[in-house]
Amino acid sequence: MSIRNAGNRVVYVVAGEASGDAIGSKLIRALQRQAPGCTFRGVGGPQMTRQGQFQSLFPMHELSFMGLTEVIPKLWKTLGHLRAVAADIRACQPDAVITIDSKGFTFRLLRILNGRGWLYHGLRLLGDVDATPVRASTTLVHYVAPSTWAYTHKYKKVAATAAGLASLFDHMLVLLPFEAPLFQPTGDTRTCVTFVGHPALEDFGDAHALFRSHDEQNVPAAWQAAFAASRLGPSEWLPAVASPALQAHAVHRCLAAEGQRAPDEAPWTICALVGSRENEVRQTVAVVRAAIDLYTRQLSRPEVRVLFPTISAVAPLLERELSGWAVPHEIHVADDARSKQALYQASNVAVAVSGTVVLETTLAVLPTVVVYRANRLTEVAASALARVRHVSLPNILAARELVPEVLFSRCTPTNVAAALRCRPADQTVAGHCADEPSAQRHAAMDVRWPSALDAAAPK
């Protein structure tokens, strides 16, 4: 999509959860720099709102739910939101509509804007939508590809999926390097998909001042040799295209930062990332509380504190869930990358619900245990249909468990506490040795740097 500088352009952005809000914020900021006359409307959270010139049509957290059975109670309200967003788009006639992730909502919205699907025809019969599809006059872009590659039944039909998505919107922006060729329709001469890099890598590069061009020769040879010696083996997921010197520099910057963590006499700090959706928090926080209770009883240190980074929409729920808990804890509203990185730096170990935060803690050299709970129906379906053996991105990329995962019915206080007790050099709860943090970070960085970093080399 290109935004012309002439005139006042309207860009409609729709995000449905915290990770999408972060991406939308970066996107709005970048478009503001390139086309200062742009006006933004849509659905988003606090990070998008802070960029200015944006006000959400309704609270974004009302779209933040997932799972096979979690969607059903929200169905009627979601239909109302779809009608409201479609009507608002028709009213403001934007030059572009950019939907971000949250495919359960955004793909239905895109079908309505294309004048397709049972939902569009049902709303049309009710007189709730205009008969003219928006696609004829507006550029449609989707940001973040669906995880088709993660499921056996979906991967078998990926060619048909790619063609279907290309008919749904004009362009797709993807986070992982293998997704661009995967979703490019066979035989289509136009470029339908562009790889733009993962936002967690962008935040990491920004935090370590890696967006500047430097002399690659200044990277100590010992750093590069150590990095090369600990590289991961071949994997279908890892492109290994980022500069080795750049990655070596970043690894050692992180190791230096790890040495600056809290001294031994300070309280042992646990970072508990229990989710950005209300249903995730409700499913996870009780297990995490009980696991930390078990874990702290066996710690040699008498002082322990727990940090709960969260978003503003979930903070009140978290306060209620943690009310009366005896373990010293702090709830921090961390709606931006810098705030979260400060909390990671202040922590000794983390327990995190599977998602983008696992990539963030891995890059921050913070030993992490990945947890995920869901109802039994969701667990059975996921186990039967999954093409990948792991759920966290570092493990998927490395094709082995670098970061311990305690999932579904195994996600009990006893198992989570056992995994937390495992330090990088010790045995994991699964009975095998965990890799050193640098190996985890190598896998994380092979998501690939954003293009701005490709030509850079560290000081």
From TrEMBL:
What's a Gene Ontology MF term here? Answer: phospholipid binding
Reaction(s) catalysed by this chain's protein: a lipid X + a UDP-2-N,3-O-bis[(3R)-3-hydroxyacyl]-alpha-D-glucosamine = a lipid A disaccharide + UDP + H(+)
UniProt-listed InterPro entries: Glyco_trans_19
The alphabetized UniProt keywords are: Glycosyltransferase, Lipid A biosynthesis, Lipid biosynthesis, Lipid metabolism, Transferase
Biological process (GO), any one: lipid A biosynthetic process
Q: Which GO terms describe its cellular component?
A: membrane
* EC number in record: 2.4.1.182
Query: Which SUPFAM superfamilies does the annotation name?
Result: UDP-Glycosyltransferase/glycogen phosphorylase
Q: What is this protein called?
A: lipid-A-disaccharide synthase
Which organism is this protein's natural source? Achlya hypogyna
